[in-house]
Amino acid sequence: GENVEQHPSTLSVQEGDSAVIKCTYSDSASNYFPWYKQELGKRPQLIIDIRSNVGEKKDQRIAVTLNKTAKHFSLHITETQPEDSAVYFCAAHHYTSYGKLTFGQGTILTVHP
Amino acid sequence: DTEVTQTPKHLVMGMTNKKSLKCEQHMGHRAMYWYKQKAKKPPELMFVYSYEKLSINESVPSRFSPECPNSSLLNLHLHALQPEDSALYLCASSQDFNEQYFGPGTRLTVT
Fold first, then answer.
1. pLDDT digits over A101-113, tens only?
2. What is the pLDDT of residues B54-105, one digit of tens each?
3. How many Å is the Cα radius of gyration of chain B?
4. How many C-beta neighbours within 10 Å does residue B92 have?
5. Nearest CB partner across the interface for A49, out of B40, B99, B103
6. What residues of A are in contact with residue B34 (Cβ under 8 Å)?
7. Mutate which of A43, A103, A107, A110 to test chain B, going by most B C-beta atoms within 10 A?
8. pLDDT at residue A38 is higher than 60
9. What is the DSSP letter of A93?
10. What is the pLDDT of residues A81-90, one digit of tens each?
11. Which residues on adjacent β-strands are paired with residue B24?
12. A29 touches chain B (CB under 8 A)
């Protein structure tokens, strides 16, 4: 089955810096890669996603890149703000998995004012 | 509107109780999910319903019983739970198995 590794497990940055979280996946047939942000006590929130036919996607201060050959994808947050502090989960999905997302173990991002 | 609602927000139950968790979505999504989440861990898939039919059961113990009365509603019936079942139970929905939107969850404590 699919396996997703996520690094780092914790990330601490100063406000205004950039943050990068990386994930690798094992199943080359996976074709959908979402990122979720979960603030303390809140629901996981889908913040950005990318499909395997695209190499990069941006939405304001966040971007995701996908390298299918190397089987890794990354979340980039620029100009970080304290409200970006949360746990971030990456995930991978294969179209035959019928909705079963394989999640990474999460990254605790702390943005210091 | 990417809104999935869940009730109750919090639930405390004894090991002999029977209770139900409820989830509702009005986005016309065809798939609905139950996840279990422990603190500081990713969500763990329990069940997937597609077009109101159970399509995935991740070997969940029978003390958890899902039900999908219609395309907008999803229930999780709980019976004879164990303290280790205490967790955040999340419902999610999606149109095409990809973009899954989560509800706020039910914080369950089993005493």
1. 999 999 999 999 9
2. 999 999 999 999 999 999 999 999 999 999 999 999 999 999 888 999 999 9
3. 13
4. 27
5. B99
6. none
7. A43
8. yes
9. B
10. 999 999 999 9
11. B5, B73
12. no
> If you measure CA to CA, which chain A residue comes closest to B50?
A98
8 Å CB contact between A76 and A65: yes
C-alpha span between B73 and A71 (Å, rounded): 37
Q: How close is the nearest chain A Cα to the Cα of B35, in Å? A: 10
Whether B28 shows a pLDDT value over 80: the answer reads yes
Question: What are the tokens at A13?
Answer: 């940055």
